[in-house]
Specification:
Layout lengths: L1 H14 L2 H9 L1 H11 L8 H13 L3 E6 L7 H17 L7 E5 L10 H14 L6 E3 L7 H16 L3 E6 L5 H11 L2 E5 L15 H16 L4 E4 L3 H11 L3 E5 L4 H9 L4 E7 L4 H11 L3
Parallel strand pairs: 1-2, 1-8, 2-3, 3-4, 4-5, 5-6, 6-7, 7-8
Helix pairs in contact: 1-12, 5-6, 6-7, 7-8
Bound molecules: flavin-adenine dinucleotide.
Length: about 300
């Protein structure tokens, strides 16, 4: 158990190492090898690739949420360009089945530099979506949770809560309080274990403590009558919660435990797959490798 945690922490540090990314992507053969491994988790580099994957999933009864890779944008003009891309995506999903949503990380929309502008972008993108679709906002590291939450609540307050989704990380000690604020605001919640390795005083250890928090948060959502999805590949958690709460949406990442998702879909459980696309796949892939340890 400790070996797995140490392994995960080390891989997580590598995942966020821009030096490693530069080294691997500078050597064409290494980049090709890395891409071959990463492509299990990534639709491709273009929206067309993601749209094809989303259509194929829809054909077999599975919804999706398309994300254009990117995070940690630190200049205003790049954030504005990303916002334009997302406005285009919001229009483009109208041509895709109604089960196709969008996902975004707010640091991709410049959260770190201009949080107010970022909230404006998110509100505009949500408003541009066809009725019945959502943009699901990713949860990033704990130092940004306040800013992400503020942005989501602002957008919900501007009449967009039905086109919005938040992500709540069970491994964070603060999540119970955050969840209550999202429940009060009527925002759809994607409940995850949490991908980031955080300080011990802010987080529960991965494993039993996080799993217990996950169960408690799921029950809290169900008791409040909220709309939410169980976004985990943990079959035991999925089955325990489905048995206790009745049919609920389950969300998984592209390329992770697809057989489980198929089995759930065949039983009539609503399912959705997160589909990322774009050039900046390296860090995402390393995070997934870190999580696949102990599989
Ligand atoms: C739809 C969706 C959206 C997410 N969004 C966010 C977000 O915004 N912020 C955030 O911090 N986290 C996010 N996550 C990631 C999440 O926090 C976890 O890090 C990740 O899902 C792994 O945890 P798990 O719940 O699947 O449970 P685990 O206990 O880690 O895994 C359960 C089982 O699935 C297997 N498994 C897990 N990952 C892999 C993999 N990559 N390859 C092969 N097998 C694997 C495990 O080995 C194990 O058997 C998201 C996850 C999903 C499904």
């Amino acid at each position: 158990m400790h070996a797995v945690s140490a392994d995960r922490a080390l891989l997580f540090r590598l995942a966020t190492s821009s030096q490693l990314e530069r080294i691997v992507t500078a050597v064409p053969a290494a980049q090709r090898r890395a891409w071959r491994a990463a492509s299990r988790y990534v639709a491709g580099t273009t929206f067309g690739d993601a749209a094809r994957t989303a259509r194929a999933l829809h054909e077999v009864g599975v919804g999706s949420s398309i994300d254009q890779f990117g995070e940690l944008v630190h200049d205003a003009s790049t954030a504005a360009a990303v916002a334009s891309d997302y406005l285009r995506l919001a229009a483009d999903v109208a041509a895709l089945p109604e089960t196709v949503w969008l996902s975004v990380d707010l640091t991709h929309l410049g959260l770190d530099i201009e949080p107010h502008r970022c909230a404006e972008y998110l509100t505009a993108i949500a408003a541009a979506l066809p009725v019945g679709r959502r943009i699901q906002v990713g949860a990033e590291d704990c130092s940004r949770t306040d800013a992400v939450l503020a942005c989501i609540l602002t957008t919900a307050g501007h009449g967009q809560r039905d086109r919005l989704g938040a992500t709540v990380q069970a491994n964070l000690r603060r999540s119970r309080t955050d969840l209550d604020r999202l429940i009060d605001a009527g925002v759809h919640v994607r409940l995850v274990k949490g991908a980031y390795v955080e300080a011990a005083d802010l987080s529960w250890p991965f494993g039993q403590a996080t799993d217990i928090a996950y169960v408690q948060l799921a029950h809290r959502l169900a008791d409040a009558g909220s709309q939410f999805a169980l976004a985990t590949h943990d079959g035991v958690l999925q089955e325990a919660l489905l048995a206790g709460l009745g049919p609920r949406s389950v969300e998984q990442l592209l390329g992770v435990q697809p057989a489980r998702l198929d089995a759930l879909t065949a039983r009539g459980i609503p399912t959705r797959v997160y589909i990322p696309f774009g050039d900046s796949w390296f860090r995402y892939w390393m995070r997934r490798v870190a999580e696949s340890r102990g599989a």
